[in-house]
Amino acid sequence: MIKINEEQKIFDLSGKDFNYILAVNQFGYLENLYFGKKIEYTGFIKNFTEARGHGVCVSGERNRHADASQFMLEYSSVGAGDFRIPSIIVNQKSGARTCDLKYSSYKIVEKRFSSPLPKCRGGETLVISLTDESAGVTVDLYYTIYDDISAIVRSVNVKNMSNDEIYLDKAYSFNIDLPYDDYRITGLFGAHLKERSVESEKIMRGTHTLSSLRGVSSAQINPFIAVSDSYATENIGRVYGFNLIYSGNFELNVSLDEIDHLRINGGIASEDFGWFLKSGEEFETPECVIAYSDKGFNGMSAAFHDLYREHLINEKFVYASRPIVINNWEATYFNFDENKLKSIIDSVKGTGIDTFVLDDGWFGKRNDDTTSLGDWFANKEKLPDGLKSVSDYCHKNGLKFGLWFEPEMVSPESELYKHHPTWVVKIDGRSPCLGRDQLVLDLTNEKVVDFIVETISSHIENDGLDYIKWDMNRSITDQYSSTLLKENQKEFNHRYVLGLYSALKRITEKYPSVLIEGCASGGCRFDAGILAYCPQIWTSDNSDAYSRTRIQYGTSYCYPPSAMSCHVSVCPNHQTGRVTPFESRIAIASLGAFGFELDSTKLSDDERSAVKAACSSYRQDEVLLLGGDLIRLKSPFKDGYFAEMLVSKDKRRAKLTVMPPNSFGNDKFYFVRLYGLNENAMYRLNGQSVASGSALVHRGYYLPRVSGDYNTIVVYLEQTD
Ligand code: GLA
């Protein structure tokens, strides 16, 4: 709900569990007066500004002063008395960069969805305009809130109101200044095969920046940061979570100053960024979601999950039953032919697996990763009858057909590169860096985007694709486009991401029933921007169940379980060499969009029966996965083992999955408190014993002792009445 006090210029935005209160101070600056648990604010504002008035704003008559560093600003600029990290830098015709943004107006609007930049749907949107007439710029701050979700969505539109060009060195999505209160920061860090590990640090004075300059949101640092009470756990404490809906270079800063004001701001990385705005032109930033929880990190995640499911992910897919995939990558790598693929398809008939995905190696002359990206026509040696023959075989056998592409890439050894050498990201006179022996296509060039859309469209239409795995296997270097003018080159990184979104938007709008799964060397571009177009993303190339407990745990901080594509693979695991029980691989993979990544022709009878049983129980539990709450109970990072529970929204059903610690002999008894259950209800566990919700929450569930390592315990809880 948005409440506005016109006279005092107070804006009170309330979401499910919070108020976000803004006010224009006597100097015309928009300040954040409060962001936190719901409060009654009558009288509070006055009290607050009076108390603080001793330190700042000594004279209401001065209209310029150098005290803006003490204001709790909602957007920040340079040269006007705020010496903290700015949110925007505007180069004006004279070369001046000072910009003093003061409140000018507000309005309630319907959000526009014309650009391909992903945005959250629905809610109520308030726009507050800040202006600096001398700099010729107006900054519209967008705030979208939802009555039933504990998150606020922010973004910014910068308008050039002058008659001259202006040049932005930086244009963040948001800025917020909060009073510091013994907080910590938490982020998701990693690398290929170990994406999104949860790490947490004390906040030091100065600035801590989380950023990616790889052209993708990256496995190294996810575009997420949380600021929380230092004592916060999964279930208690205040947590403010920030997640950018963006897939390219980003930065998120947390700065603590000398008067204990904490500034959090961020958006598109300002490093290697610039943007020209002609007179009258606008620049739209990506959205940033700010989640609030006073019930620990689980509460924060619930806010992100609910928002993304209800308002970001494609409505057609988000709550729909997901394909259960068999993917041939780890089964064959590049070494397959039509007969091998057909034998895989034959071998899964009757198991419940319903989609066959043909991975890398089906096109051009591709027998390893050094060639043919861009030549998206069937490899005649492997598939003499073309893709259609495989697709028809799937359909005839009741399976859907999915196909792997890496649309943003080109191999130097390819027909595409030969015919379109200028379509590549490179600089004349300099040999470009290769990554996995491949070059990046220039998605800032509309012709390249058209080529991608046309190529994929023709495969959808001619080969009957039901599903696409959209991969992206290298970071971007040599940032330069031959189609951009010299002065626009710093727009490259963002224009690349816009090109990507544009291709995805066009394809998803044209073929609404084709599900596109995102992928980037596993989970190297796992972010909310991709989620807007791809309801699920391959979480990691590491399919080892033990490693996956960490990866999926961290990923769930922002992204709902149904967004994580998770497959069962063989042992010894191809990435770690670890051997884990088949049941554990199934239990952990079925905590996401489920599938298999193995040679199903080699399954033993027992394993085949286990696959069948797994598909059937996955379907029974799928409603929990798609729409329930995920409650993290034991952290592989902090507690040394993994326990999570999926709970239906009405709390009548739940599924607990635990991978207990490895055995040392004569172990202690482990128990898990089942937060998230209804404390006033009785539950039947695995169809047998009955326990009260309150006992399960407060006394906890004792884990049975299991022999051997990497086992899993799965417990179904059903309310009895
Ligand atoms: C990436 C993906 C894998 C697989 C290979 C194919 O690494 O993450 O799942 O598709 O590419 O080359």
Fold and architecture overview:
The protein is globular. 54% of the residues are buried. The protein is an alpha+beta fold. The chain starts with a strand and ends with a strand. Mean pLDDT is 95; it is low at 53-64. The strands form eight sheets. Strands 6, 7, 8, 9, 12, 13, 15, 16, 20 and 21 form a ten-stranded antiparallel beta sheet that branches. The protein is built from 14 helices and 39 strands. The chain binds alpha-D-galactopyranose (GLA).
Provide a concise account of the structure shown.
This protein is α+β, with helices and mostly antiparallel strands and 721 residues long. The two termini are 36 Å apart.
Characteristic terms for this protein:
binds alpha-D-galactopyranose, 721 residues, ten-stranded antiparallel sheet, alpha+beta, 14 helices, 39 strands, eight-stranded parallel β-barrel
Helix content estimate: 10-25%
Structural class: alpha+beta
How large is the count of helical segments?
14
Bound molecules: alpha-D-galactopyranose
Gap between N and C termini = 36 Å
State which percent range the strand residues make up: 25-35%
Mean pLDDT, rounded to whole units?
95
Largest sheet: 10 strands, antiparallel
Radius of gyration based on Cα positions: 26 Å
Morphology: globular
Counted beta strands: 39
Segments where pLDDT lies below 50 for 5+ residues? Answer: 53-64
Secondary structure elements and their pairing?
Layout: E1 2-5, E2 10-14, E3 18-24, E4 30-37, H1 44-52, E5 88-91, E6 102-109, E7 124-132, E8 137-145, E9 151-160, E10 166-171, E11 174-179, E12 183-189, E13 197-202, E14 206-212, E15 224-229, E16 239-244, E17 250-256, E18 261-268, E19 275-277, E20 282-284, E21 288-293, H2 296-311, H3 315-318, E22 325-327, H4 329-332, H5 338-348, E23 355-358, H6 386-396, E24 400-405, E25 409-410, H7 415-419, E26 439-440, H8 446-463, E27 467-470, H9 492-510, E28 515-518, H10 528-533, E29 536-538, H11 545-555, E30 564-569, H12 582-589, E31 593-597, H13 605-627, E32 629-634, E33 642-647, E34 653-659, E35 671-672, E36 682-685, E37 690-692, H14 693-698, E38 701-702, E39 713-719
Parallel strand pairs: 22-23, 22-31, 23-24, 24-27, 27-28, 28-29, 29-30, 30-31
Antiparallel strand pairs: 1-2, 2-3, 3-4, 5-10, 6-7, 7-8, 8-9, 9-20, 9-21, 10-19, 11-18, 12-13, 12-15, 14-17, 15-16, 16-21, 17-18, 25-26, 32-33, 33-34, 34-39, 35-38, 36-37, 36-39
Helix pairs in contact: 5-6, 8-9, 11-12, 12-13
The structure holds alpha-D-galactopyranose (GLA).
Alpha-D-galactopyranose is lined by residues 329, 359-360, 369, 404, 471, 473, 519, 521-522, 538, 541.
